[in-house]
Specification:
Elements: E1 4-9, E2 12-17, E3 20-22, E4 29-32, E5 36-38, E6 44-51, H1 55-64, H2 70-86, E7 90-99, E8 102-109, E9 123-125, E10 127-128, H3 136-144, H4 148-160, E11 178-185, E12 188-196
Antiparallel strand pairs: 1-2, 1-10, 2-11, 3-4, 5-6, 6-7, 7-8, 8-9, 11-12
Helix pairs in contact: 1-2, 3-4
């Protein structure tokens, strides 16, 4: 699975993802991969968490659609999510876009999102965290509002606290490698390592 967080702040849509890949049966670390993809023609970034397929497969499917606007991007992400499920896999795609200069976040998931959305239907969110929803650092961000400091605390908690992740056989810490931050604004996309895990 993936540390897959996002928020909107100060004219930017910001995403975070780790780079570790784990075996879903044993929970063993397999190596490090990119779990993000970036738009070619306009500013957007997507992060991907998967079970039964790779983030690269999802990124390739979305990329091959060559989305040139938000509607096309959401349609491509929806099709990639459906395609994964049809193959017996799962994908959750978190998208950060600058839509006419306005930061927006969308989640497209192959399953019901904790009662928040319909499978494969894009859901617009203000913020997102991939795990530990009921733990204090995550609740703090959702209740008081997300800041860079609160997100860093949430990420530290996710990196250091065992959890049960969908598709993995046992609870554990399945976050590793670098946590990369992607910032999307009307000016474009930037990325940097937020934290080495």
């Amino acid at each position: 699975m993936t540390l897959q967080n996002g928020m909107k702040l100060g004219g930017k849509a910001i995403l975070w993802a780790d780079t570790a890949a784990y075996d879903k049966e044993s929970g063993n670390l397999l190596g490090y991969i990119s779990k993000a993809f970036q738009g070619l023609e306009w500013p957007f970034v997507g992060t991907v968490t998967t079970v039964g397929c790779t983030p690269a497969e999802i990124a390739e499917q979305v990329g091959n659609a060559y989305p040139s606007n938000l509607g096309e991007l959401l349609a491509a992400a929806t099709e990639a999510s459906k395609s994964a499920v049809e193959r017996g896999a799962f994908a959750r795609i978190l998208l950060a876009v600058a839509d006419n200069g306005k930061p927006r976040l969308f989640i497209v998931s192959g399953c019901d999102i904790d009662g928040l959305g319909v499978p494969h239907e894009p859901l617009e969110v203000e913020a997102w965290t991939s795990s530990h929803y009921r733990d204090a650092p995550i609740l703090d961000g959702f209740q008081k509002g997300w800041t860079r400091h609160r997100m860093k605390k949430a990420i530290a908690h996710q990196c250091d606290t065992p959890a049960h992740y969908m598709g993995l056989s046992k609870p554990g810490i399945y976050v590793g490698g670098n946590v990369v931050r992607y910032e999307v604004s009307a000016k474009g996309v930037s990325s940097a390592v937020e934290r080495a895990v």
